[in-house]
Write a structure and sequence with these properties.
A hairpin with a 4-residue loop joins strand 3 and strand 4. With 103 residues, the chain is mainly β. It has one domain. The model has no long low-confidence stretch (mean pLDDT 92). 9% of the residues lie in helices and 49% in strands. A four-stranded antiparallel β-sheet has the order 2-3-4-5, with no helix packed on it. The chain has a three-stranded antiparallel β-sheet with strand order 1-7-6.
């Protein structure tokens, strides 16, 4: 598990590598909710998914080769001005997801 670097802005995009996999994460603040679009090796996995604290952004295990989750203080909804300030985005690799899913 790793914490991904976020900046305190309403919309942002960043790319990182996990082994041979290239992830692109796009975050957009849509008022009361943040939406996420995730690409794996330039192929869209999810688009405009609602970002909720403590919930995986990729909702289906069959799409996973890794996954993402916001962790926020007081389970507040993720918000651009608070990103990186008590609101963190975690990345879990494929092995960690298998362990989490299988308990």
């Amino acid at each position: 598990m790793q914490i991904l670097p976020l900046i305190q802005v309403a919309s942002q995009e960043f790319t990182f590598r996990d082994g041979d996999t290239r992830w692109t994460v796009r975050l957009k603040d849509c008022g009361d909710v943040m939406a996420a679009t995730i690409l794996r090796d330039e192929i869209e996995v999810v688009s405009g998914v609602r970002a909720l604290p403590g919930e995986f952004l990729i909702p289906f295990a069959y799409l996973e080769t890794g996954n993402f989750m916001f962790v926020t203080e007081g389970d507040e909804l993720p918000s651009g001005p608070m990103l990186g300030m008590g609101q963190e985005l975690y990345y879990f690799d494929a092995a960690e997801m298998v362990e989490l899913r299988n308990g």
